[in-house]
Design brief:
The protein is an alpha+beta fold. It has 1 helix and 4 strands, in the order ββββα. It has a 4-stranded antiparallel β-sheet with strand order 1-2-3-4, with no helix packed on it. The longest helix is centred in the C-terminal third of the chain and has 12 residues, at 41-52.
């Protein structure tokens, strides 16, 4: 399975942003793309929902 990455729509001009894999099973820092954090889609959703609630 090939991952494709999507940058946050809120990324800043200096390139500092978080990217999410197309299957919602991983995230990475755009400045250090070799390090990937694997997560379950349910955990990623819970994390994003928590951010939105702030």
């Amino acid at each position: 399975m090939t991952r494709r990455w999507k940058k946050s729509s809120r990324s800043v001009s200096d390139g500092a942003c978080v990217e999410v894999a197309n299957h919602l099973d991983a995230v990475r820092d755009s400045k250090n793309p070799s390090v990937v954090l694997s997560v379950s889609p349910a955990r990623l959703k819970a994390f994003v929902d928590g951010l939105r609630a702030r």
